[in-house]
Amino acid sequence: MVKALAVAGLAAFCAFKINRVMVNRFGEGAVKFLIPLAEEGLKTGSALLFGFSVPVVHLGFGLYEAGYDLLANPGAGIKRWMAALLAIMGHGLFGWVTGQLIKLKGSPILAVGSAYAVHVVWNIIVLIMKR
């Protein structure tokens, strides 16, 4: 479990760096469409590359994102806790979708593509809720 969390941490660190570049370059559109693709690829790819459970790595990624949300927004009160909870729930859902599709269809590409679609919809809903 500790090793899977380390792999999730590596994926989260890479995503953090990539996400910053994409947001600076493309703005909110990156949050909707580019970041989900990068994150789903990083999480699933690293889990498969290192031989760990896809859902566990996705959930671990969500825990790292939740920690970031809590630390990066100290004055945000309940909003930061909601962001943290949504990170854990969202990445847990994406990991479940990905894991189930890999198990049922045997195709990581199909699984990542499907999780990407769910992630896009999730991010659009969260952005609407933030307004």
In short, what is this structure?
The chain has about 130 residues and is mainly α.
What does the model show?
It contains five helices and no strands. The protein has 131 residues and is mostly helical. The longest helix has 28 residues.
Can you give keywords for this protein?
131 residues
> Treating each run of at least 4 consecutive H or I residues as one helix, how many helices?
5
Helix coverage percent: over 70%
Question: How many strands appear in the DSSP assignment?
Answer: 0
Q: What is the molecular shape?
A: globular
* Unreliable runs: none
The helix-and-strand class reads mainly alpha
Counting structural domains, the number is 1
SSE succession:
HHHHH
The mean pLDDT is 94
Radius of gyration: 14 Å
Distance from N terminus to C terminus (CA atoms, Å) equals: 37 Å
Strand content: under 5%
Q: Mind describing the biggest β-sheet?
A: none
